[in-house]
Each structure stands twice: as structure tokens, then as C-alpha cells.
User: What shape does this take?
Amino acid sequence: MNTQDYIKLENEYGATNYKPLDVVLTRGRGVWVWDVEGNRYLDCLSAYSAVNQGHCHPRIAAVMREQAEKLTLTSRAFRNDQLGPFYGELCELTHSHTALPMNSGAEAVESCIKAVRKWGYQAKKVPDGQAEIIVCENNFHGRTVTIVGFSTEPQYRNGYAPFTPGFKIIPFGDAQALEKAITSNTVAFLVEPIQGEAGVIVPPAGYLKEVRRICTQHDVILMTDEIQTGLGRTGRLLDEEYEGIEADLTVIGKALSGGFYPVSAVLSNKEVLGVFQPGDHGSTFGGNPLACAVARMALRVLVEEGMVENSARMGEYLMVQLRRISSPYIKEIRGRGLLVGMELHKEAGGARRFCQALMGEGLLCKETHENVIRFAPPLIIQQDDIDWALERIERVLTTL
Ligand SMILES: *Cc1c(COP(=O)(O)O)cnc(C)c1O
Assistant: This one.
């Protein structure tokens, strides 16, 4: 079968909720992936930062194979010998008190929403059914009905009503707006340190620190969604480290498994997760031994192989070099670590055609919103690969 055969099959039988680039991948190793025709590409998306450790990392693959032959799923009705060590290593690494393992990112965000509501009623004595959670414009926290209900992106929410009430939306990057929006019923504020899906929007310096101060002062739980920014993507283990703050709840996912398996977790620095009593919340696959074994190794290689530091170093290099490209299409280069957005002027005719052209040059990138190209390669990328990419990016941006 060739590329067109695979595409035809997908189009014939698949639900139509995606419009991928017409490349059919069959193999990946490190920063590179290969299509069914044998063409090689540099992956500049890393599965939305789920493959931070690089494709098919051999140490994670080995653990996955090993664990798959030993024990995969027990449900939480019984204990397993991977969960305790996973908790210990995860909490020590992230300086958390407690963790709650789930599967997808959206599930972990939903778990946070449940936890802070319960916390609000029990600890803050908010009248039953009145808990409010504040979120930001242009947020992305996943695709469940509750989560898209507080999205401001029409395409994410249109047609899916009725939605879960209890959310208030304020502008991103505006700490004063948060302070103004808080009432005695506010239980939590949910925010991404950098809005990835919105187009790599970096808030003003000091924003998170100010948000932390406001939340503490008003007894509001600060929840950060680090599903995309976390685990080294922006050059620190968690992006919040840049502002020297600790959120009360932090959600991680994606790279927590190195892209092998859906694993997410809620990290808690406060007694928020303590509101859950046995039976209050659960997941059949959450915390299963296969997921725990894979996540333990995914965290281990991230740290032991210096990927976080490499992300900071290579991200800086990439950003500086991208800024040197002289193209009338480029409006702004922004980001942190290896989460970099290139915003194009409206006149450029949309980012999609540039992504298409980059694919022709051997670079897989994805547009986010109309006019932003995101560059987020695996965190193991080396300078010669970045130079290889830059040559092609410059060619496309100056000749298309
Ligand atoms: C990807 C992502 C999610 C959703 O994760 P899923 O695993 O797709 O449910 C939530 N928040 C952010 C910031 C993300 O990047």
C-alpha cells in the first residue's frame, strides 16, 4: 500500500474530526520519522509535546516490553508494585506532596475540577452548588464537554451545549482581572503558564508570581495546566519554576509517558487531593503497572539524559536563529525553551501552506490557529539538526 491507499482508507472509514497533513508515518527514532514511501522528516511537533524524549526511546521501549510481559493492569481494586515507586519518584522530582494518576490530559483536568469543587465546599465552606472556577480566554485544557464549555474557541464548543456551569472567563496575562473576578465563591483559578494551542502566547514576566500572590491572599486554589509546557518543554522541569512559584495543583500528561502510552497525573502541593475519600473518584486504567513503569522510565531519561537543560539551550539557539531570518511574512518569534511560535502576518496567507511547503523540505510542523507555526522538536535535538532545519525554514519563508 502506498500513501494514497492509506489516506483513502482513513477517509473512507474514519470519523472526520481531523485534517492531517498528507504524510503517512510508519517509523520513528529520536527526532526523525519516516513515511511509508521511505522519506525522512524532522519532527517539529513531537505529538504536541508528548514525545519530548524522542521517538521510540530505547530505554522506555525496553521497560514497556518488559512490563507488558509481566503485569499490565490490575485496576485499583488491588495494589501493584509499580504504583508506589512511581508516586515516590514523581513527587520527589516535582516537589509534590501527593499525586493522582489518570490517563488523558483532559481526564486529569476534570479530576482537578472535581477536587477543587469538593475542597471549596469542605474547606472553604462555599454554599453547596455555588463553587466558581476562573479560567482564561483562549485556554486549551482538553475536549470533554465540561472543558469545552469554558473554551472561548467557537469550533471547540459550538454544537455541544448544554455545558457545565460554574466557570468564569477572564483575559490571559492580566493578574488584575483575576483579582477583580474573585468572589467568596471562587474556589480555583486554572491557567496554562504559556498558552500553547492559542499560538504560543507567553504572558508578561511576573504574571504567575502575581497570580500566586492573589490566589494565596484570597484562599483560591491555583491550578496550572502544564500538560504541554511541563516536563522540560520550556527549558525547566515545570515552567512555573521560571517564576519561582508552586501551584497548588499541577496537571501533567503527554510526555509523562514519552509518547508510548496515555499517562497523566495531578500533582498536589496542598491538601486539595485529600478531599477524595475511597470511592469518590477513579479510573480503570489510571495508575496501572504498565503506565507506571513507562512513566517512571520516561521521567528518568528526561533527567538522566539532560533533556531539560538541552531544551533550554537549544530553544534559546533556535529562537535567536529564527529571529535572524529576514522574511516579510514573519511578524514575531516567541516562546520559551523548545516551545517556539512563529507568527506570520495576515498577508502571508495562513500558516498551513508554509507547513505544507516545510513538509516538502522534510520538516513536519503544524500550524496553530491561522497564522502561527509551532516549532517544538523532541528535547534531544542537537545543534546540527537545528541548523539543518533552519536552512529549510529560511528557504521556505523567503521563497514561498
Ligand atoms: C494536550 C493538552 C490537553 C489535553 O490533553 P489530552 O491528553 O489530549 O486530553 C490539555 N491541556 C493542554 C495545555 C494540552 O496541551
About this structure: The pocket of pyridoxal-5'-phosphate is lined by residues 48, 104-106, 109, 140-142, 192, 196, 225, 227-228, 253-254 (CB under 6 Å). The chain has two domains: 3-56+306-399, 58-304.
